[in-house]
Design goal:
four-stranded antiparallel sheet; single chain; mainly beta
Length: 91
């Protein structure tokens, strides 16, 4: 797993966090100025398994799934009618 990688033109790293309902979240941080670049996850109105995240892969986050899969952060898609869930490889 590579926690530091290119995201567009930015040098970035993954920051894991927990939403108030216990779901895991993924945020990308710029490694040059340590500012947040984007939050890759959404927090659905359901509690996910501990090794799952819900990814927003549209609008400003389009292409984020490919970047996270290539970096080894995500590895398996679980598709549901309204969300795409990914299993998370924890560091």
């Amino acid at each position: 797993m590579n926690l530091e990688f290119k995201y567009g033109e930015f040098n970035s790293k993954v920051e894991f966090f927990t939403y108030p309902n216990g779901n895991k979240g993924i945020r990308l941080i710029d490694t040059d100025d340590f500012c947040p670049l984007t939050t890759a996850t959404i927090n659905p109105n359901m509690v996910l398994d501990n090794d799952c995240v819900a990814i927003k892969n549209y609008s400003e986050n389009e292409g984020i799934v490919e970047v996270l899969v290539e970096a080894g952060i995500l590895f398996l898609l679980i598709s549901m009618p309204t969300f795409l869930f990914w299993l998370l490889i924890l560091p």
